[in-house]
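Our platform keeps sequence and structure together, in a single record for each protein. This encoding replaces a full spatial description with a residue-level series of whole-number codes. We quote a single record here, exactly as it is kept in our systems:
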Amino acid sequence: MCGIIGVCSKKPIESRDWLITGRDAMKHRGPDSAGIWWSEKGNVGFAHRRLSIIDLSEKGHQPMHDSQHEISIVLNGEIYNYQELKEQLIDEGFTFNSTSDTEVVIASWKKWGTKCVDRFNGMFAFAIHDFKKEIVFVARDRAGEKPLFYSLKDGELRFSSEIKGLLSDENFPRKINRISLDSYLSWGFVPGDSTMIDGIQKLPPAHTLLYNLRDGKKEINKFWKLPEYESNENSKDYQEEDLIESLESLLADAVEKQLVADVPVGVLLSGGLDSSLITALASRVSNKIKTFTVSFPGYSNHDESNHAKLIADYFQTDHKELSAGSIHPDIMFKLARQFDEPMIDSSMIPTYLVSKLVREHCTVAIGGDGGDELFGGYKHYNRLLWTKDFVEPIPRQLRNVVAHISNVLLPIGFKGRYGLQSLSSNFNSELPILSSIFDQKFRNKLINNSYKPWVFAGEEIRKSRIPSNTDLLQRITRMDFNNYLSEDILVKVDRASMLNSLELRAPLLDYRVIEFAYGKIPSTLKTTKSERKILLKKLASKILPSGFDYERKQGFSIPLDYWLKSPIWLNFFKDTLLDKEQRLFDHKTINRIFEMQEKGISNGERLFGLVLFELWRREYNISL
């Protein structure tokens, strides 16, 4: 795992110092070594921070070049099938000087060109300069595990693993993208290829960017998408048995590939279904796999170490229970800086603490991210199916009335408010908003009048991103994969782990597992009105101990509402949001949110999002 940054233009680049500054602003992504390279013409510059995982020698150093110095590359991530590709390329006559997967990417480019990305199984973001073709080729992995931001201004393309790399240039404009901010307040994150800052974009997952050094133009293409579901006419019993067997084989191979490293590797074992399955399959590869679980002293409802211990004892892992200790609000400053654009997900705090503790014992860890989206694990999937069957017989006009009344009368944060509002939805083609941070009505109150008229775009952007599948569960799981997973879960995991120089891998996001989950498994074997992760649980029943609790779903979380009852957290939030320097959000409305919070109407996550945004804005001096 590493940090990459670069710049290219059709003419020689004069401003160069920021490239080293931007590289070293991401030292946490690669503390082991640093490199920089400029092309002979001076129109391409690559820089790299290295976290050594495969081939720890100098031969794995980046930027890396082929023997003729015609191809140069910077790579962030891992290519899990690099050994298979290497054998194939050797048969084609290629020779290698290292055991690094980066060198395999170079050879793959020389052999297959832009189609090389189709052959990579991994999490990656990389940039290649081809001297002869006079192009720079940039690519990002299918699920979006590794980030890639870029800007294109006056024919000059800049890219970086983190936005802070681009902002290391003091002359880079720092102005809020208001449409993105509205999406943030609605969704909790910024979806699609936009970012919170004008002039900076994300390369979306499964996309490539081709920059022509002759004319300074870019071309963006999508190289992969979720497959359509293929129905199977075989009998249910046979199909189910076959699916379980195929899933076990695919997942076992994914785990084995992701255990390969030249540094210590461990498994994040929360004790939940996904991480327990990963542990079970990893124990087949290694006799003494290292597993880690983290507890939060004083919060028994968030301590799941007993569930993890059951799995660890059963598979005889080298298990360590780590204690997170007390948590102070000052952690928000650290996270505001690391998360280049804020997101409304307070579980970034335990994710950061878990990564920090695990890094003391290993450099690579494997987790269970992706299981909920792929196999139907979220509670709102049950609720959505139940709601559909319950409300469809009710006349649409009556449903619209109930939805409207709930919107007008029920305060934000009131439990069940969004459920009632969803009654007006067309469940055959739409997706009701089962949860929202701030709806449009409240955003209108939240934004200070001096910043109006305001563009309320969050709901329309959400509507435009809803998949067209007729199957409701296919629609919602694909929506979550393309949005919540890539823009929240994976961002949180990447930034929190990389801040601690820890590489986190996700076997469930092996693209073969993804394609199998969406292309082969029917919705009835994912989620029903009463069950979730049905097929995954059937696999688990084969390989997990009999005393395992299948219905438990905690994950890494914090008692934020409880913390906000303490003066230290409450005053920190109030001091941030009611400070005279904070002018975007209406102070009267902010006070109203705090009043509701004190009355027991849960708005802790909303307040967290506003605080993080304001701390981030100040940290990077972003203008409104």
Notes: The longest helix spans residues 472-499. The radius of gyration is 24 Å.
